[in-house]
Specification:
One of its GO terms (cellular component) is plasma membrane. With 672 residues, this protein is an alpha+beta fold. It is built from 22 helices and 15 strands. It has three domains: 303 residues, no CATH class; 231 residues, Spore Coat Polysaccharide Biosynthesis Protein SpsA, Chain A (Alpha-Beta Complex), CATH 3.90.550.10; 93 residues, predicted glycosyltransferase like domains (Thrombin, subunit H).
Length: 672
């Protein structure tokens, strides 16, 4: 009898165990970059999802009496949202079933391309479109662009200034860049770059937003791809030298990668394998002849980069993606900039479905290309998250379940395997980029701001002006995101009160049904996700200039002596030196720092941190750099040698950081 009961309880879990066994025995031992391994794994997950969808339709939707009740309408509404989510996941699985790494191809092409005489190398124009960015942002990009490792007579740097600033003109003349203006700001960024095309003549156009610094080898790695005459654009990933507000506000700066790594590290490379990669604007290079064929940068959408790819596809040109770090830029520095940026991407993506050269009506596109460029992810991701959020609350307050319920065992048998398969797939495909709780919380946090953008973009796609993401000095606002926080608080209150009311029999709004058990777990999980999401609403102050981790031997010279040290951190205005013993320096003392590969610096001691357990003593110092010395420091720090990648997720540190933020005293969590 006991054995029968055990079998009865464990039987519904058999499909989930099968999913786990597949990933444990097979997938985790397969090379995840191989197409055959990806295809089999994605096909397996798709089969699990189709199994769930068939059960969902035939057993929990169709049997519902067509009585026109709220429960009937709600059941079908939730199912249609699930269908949209399934379509989005289907496209994701198709895309991710392939991947390509073009680094070896780039190396092979580079050797051949640069074996030719210098006179035969093509000319390049570097465009830096700018509107309102301050000098502390622009100087890094301009100086970095001028330092590109390419014959100096073969490239020019154009600063396309749509604010017509005299001080920027003077700065460009001093540095050797070409300052370009126009009489109006028509068509925003696309119009600005089209004006740049009129005054330049290079065979190729490299584009860097005002806050992105190209690495010195950018042209050496990207230009050789254009030996293939069908290539119109080469796109590279966008990496950042500062922490985005999500990382910072959750106190996970050191243990959680920035939000865009999933796309640039994994999805973009997979799209390239299918020849449906697309231009992301900055950190790309385009063939001028291809731009001439499509009439310049399209300005029908506020995301001119995506539309440029579609317009080139219409004419037979492809976009290539080289997944190498070849530039660094500024991530959105606060939540205001974060939502301005995401809102522009979302609206621009949705606008394309209404355009004559978009995925639905654009000439020359294959059916596969049309489907792959549909903005389905923008349309569904926030809608789906919102429905996931409200389903248990609706049930707890009205008794309307999202399905014509058959039993808890059926949900365990059909729905749990889908969730397990999806989470395990994401962990397998993106081992350093995904953790369910944090990823769900970030998506939920964004939903309250982004879902209205989705709805308004569908109803009225045009008429909203192009908004530049605010960055740099003057953008130090660390506001509390009251709207999102109180939206989150509202749904926490509604969900928790719904649970409390239904615990008391006299107050209960629902009958005795098995879905009550499922809804209780669902509601509790939603509350946990919402609590983590609420933490993102509290802006934390962060430095304007982020420091780079270094390990440079140095001599620290005072008026009386010289001490050997290692410089372990540097920015454009401060640094940290490490000493084997107390150097005997005091705050306010003047020092000179001599390094082999960096400019010599005259600075001031700010403070010392004594070493623990015979550890090194750290000295903090500040300095002011000007002229050639400052330019040299920009080139050393920002053009290729230093990075701040998070190579792997430290799961224990993530949990520790979230616990510290939820129940600690605030501040930053340091796992070290």
């Amino acid at each position: 009898m006991v054995q029968y009961l055990i079998e009865l309880e464990l039987a519904p879990l058999a499909p989930t165990f099968l999913v786990g066994a597949f990933f444990y025995i097979f997938a985790t031992n397969w090379p995840r970059q191989k197409t055959w391994a990806r295809s089999i794994t994605c096909a397996f997950v798709l089969a699990v999802a189709v199994r769930y969808l068939v059960w969902r339709f035939f057993y929990t939707v169709l049997p519902h009496p067509a009585d026109g009740s709220f429960a009937f309408i709600w059941t079908w509404t939730v199912f249609f949202v699930e269908l949209g989510a399934f379509a989005d996941i289907l496209l994701f699985l198709v895309v991710m079933s392939r991947s390509v790494d073009r680094s070896s191809e780039a190396s092979r092409l580079e050797r051949t391309f640069f074996a030719r005489p210098k006179a035969e190398l093509p000319t390049v124009d570097v465009f830096i479109p700018t509107y309102n960015e301050p000098l502390d942002v622009l100087e890094r990009t301009i100086v970095g662009a001028l330092a590109l490792d390419y014959p100096r007579d073969k490239f020019k740097v154009y600063v396309l200034d749509d604010k017509r600033r005299d001080w920027l003109k003077a700065y460009c003349e001093e540095k050797g860049a070409i300052h370009v203006t126009r009489p109006d700001n028509s068509h925003a960024k696309a119009g600005n770059m089209n004006n740049g095309l009129k005054v330049s003549s290079g065979e190729f156009i490299a584009i860097f937003d005002a806050d992105f610094v190209p690495y010195r080898n950018f042209l050496r790695r990207t230009l050789p791809f254009f030996t293939d005459p069908t290539i119109g654009i080469v796109q590279t990933p966008q990496h950042f030298f500062n922490k985005d507000p999500v990382q910072s506000n959750l106190s996970l700066e050191k243990v959680w990668p920035d939000e865009q790594r999933l796309f640039f590290d994994e999805m973009a490379a997979s799209r390239d394998a299918w020849d449906v990669s697309f231009c992301c604007g900055s950190c790309s290079i385009a063939r001028r002849a291809a731009l001439d064929v499509i009439g310049g940068f399209p300005h029908d959408s506020i995301t001119e980069d995506l539309l440029t790819t579609l317009a080139m596809l219409n004419k037979g040109y492809k976009t290539r993606y080289l997944n190498e770090r070849l530039s660094m830029g500024l991530a959105a520095e606060n939540l205001k900039g974060y939502f301005v940026q995401r809102g522009r991407w979302c609206r621009g993506g949705i606008q394309t479905i209404y355009l004559h050269n978009g995925p639905l009506r654009g000439p020359g596109l294959s059916l596969f290309q049309r489907v792959m460029f549909l903005p389905l992810s923008w349309l569904m991701q926030y809608t789906t998250r919102f429905v996931i959020l409200v389903v248990p609350a609706v049930y707890l307050w009205t008794g309307a379940a999202p399905l014509y319920f058959t039993g808890t065992q059926d949900i365990v048998t059909y729905q749990l395997p889908v969730l397990a398969a999806y989470f395990l797939l994401m962990g397998w495909l993106t081992p350093t980029r995904y953790l369910p709780l944090v990823s769900s919380a970030v998506g939920t946090f964004a939903t309250f701001r982004m879902l209205p953008v989705v709805v308004s973009s569908v109803i009225k796609p045009f008429g909203v002006p192009f908004r530049v993401t605010p960055k740099g000095s003057g953008n130090e606002e660390n506001a509390f995101d009251a709207y999102t926080f109180f939206s989150i608080a509202f749904w926490i209150a509604v969900t928790v009160l719904g649970l409390v009311i239904n615990i008391v029999p006299e107050w209960s709004r629902i009958g005795e049904g098995e879905f009550s058990i499922v809804s209780a777990y669902w509601a509790a999980l939603n509350v946990l996700v919402l609590m983590v999401a609420a933490l993102i609403c509290f802006e934390k102050s962060r430095p304007l200039l982020d420091s780079f981790a270094t390990d440079e031997p140095a001599r620290v010279v005072t008026a009386y002596r010289a001490v050997d040290a290692r410089i372990v951190s540097l920015s454009l205005d401060r640094g940290v030196a490490s000493f084997a013993a107390d150097p005997g320096l005091r705050p306010g003392e003047r020092i000179w720092i001599e390094m082999e590969r960096f400019p010599h610096i005259e600075g001031t001691v700010e403070g010392l941190t004594p070493g623990r357990r015979r550890g090194p003593t750290c000295l903090r110092f500040s300095y002011t750099l000007e002229g050639d010395c400052r330019d040299a420091m920009i080139v050393r720090l920002y053009t290729g040698q230093y990075s701040q990648d998070i190579r792997d997720i430290d799961k224990s540190a993530v949990v520790g950081g979230l616990w510290h933020r939820l129940f600690g005293r605030g501040g930053s969590y340091d796992p070290a």
